[in-house]
Amino acid sequence: MPTKTDEERVPNFGYAGFRLDAPDASVAWNLQRGRSGQNATGDALPHNPTAQTPRRGAPPPPLRVSNPKVLNYLDDRCRVHKETINLCKSVLQRKSIDWISVQRNDMSNPIHDVDLVISVGGDGTLLRASHFLNSSIPVLGVNSDPTCPDEVDELTDEFDARRSTGHLCAATAANFEQILDATLDGSRQPSELSRISVKLNGLQLPTYALNDILVSHPCPASVSRFSFRKRSNTGESSHLINCRSSGLRVATPAGSTAAMLSAGGFVMPISSHELQYMIREPISPRDADKPLLHGLVKQGQHILVVWYNEEGAVYFDGSHVMHSIQHGDTLEISSDAPILKVILPENLLKQGS
């Protein structure tokens, strides 16, 4: 267990989540502050040309928030997260389950020898845990602080009151014990979700994406230059497309409701084993290329990418996992990856049936 208590480790702002494994497993929790250059509401901070970059390990600067209602709101969010953490711990302590705790940022090795991973937080916590799981260990997501639509509407003119999405989370604090019992006794079975495999110059990258990957220049204002084609395992391929764009996004069915949908993609059945890809903001594409800028990668197919910028990056499930690429590198992107077993919420189970 961590040497400090939850009360000491979690300040009264930000977002916390944790992960429980059972038996012989671990609990992980995480705190995330606002991104650099933003205040607690997500608004951009004034530019200060004399400001210096904080030293690594230096304490963070104090928050600058003009609206005290924002701080009160964040304090409430932290309180709800901690209450959910304590509730989950209490439930586990009442059952014949062995578990230990591990901080999320300390996770660096694959998880083995556990029967179940329980992620408590939101989809981001579940995605992070998935990067350390093979196809044999199921994960149950608990949304620790679901968004309240009425509150979002009430506060929309003041700040963004949306909380955790929890699209893949089957449980909340209200039904955690019920879902856990159903999982442990076998009446609630995990679903098998596709993940994305990426080979760099023929070598398998160690991370498999549960939501999506983005191949792009590391600077969002720069043009991404690459070529790509779809190719089947039998050798058949589409014609080569040379792209200047904002990058290439590839999503799983689970990730098709996220950035892919926001960019104009479509929702895929959660049980599908195909991938959806889209060229982001293509610059002056040829008419012959347009039908191939957005489509599906079926089982037995992959996308072959050749990168032409001096630098580039492959982002897995957001910005937390990134692999650098350079001019001339090739990427092979497919669904030829270990599945992930996830206890899904009822609405997704109905969608997949």
From TrEMBL:
InterPro entries in UniProt: ATP-NAD_kinase_N, ATP-NAD_kinase_PpnK-typ_C, NAD/diacylglycerol_kinase_sf, NADK
Segments forming a coiled coil: none
Residue ranges of the region described as Disordered: 29-68
EC number of this enzyme: 2.7.1.86
GO biological process: NAD+ metabolic process; NADP+ biosynthetic process
A Pfam family the protein falls into: NAD_kinase
Location relative to the cell: Cytoplasm
Keyword Endoplasmic reticulum: no
A GO cellular-component term linked to this record: cytoplasm
GO molecular function: ATP binding; NAD+ kinase activity; NADH kinase activity
Keywords in alphabetical order: ATP-binding, Cytoplasm, Kinase, NAD, NADP, Nucleotide-binding, Transferase
PANTHER family linked to this entry: NAD KINASE, NADH KINASE
Assembly notes: Homodimer.
Family, similarity comment: Belongs to the NAD kinase family.
Name of the molecule in the record: NADH kinase
Species in which this protein is naturally found: Oryza barthii
Origin organism lineage: Eukaryota, Viridiplantae, Streptophyta, Embryophyta, Tracheophyta
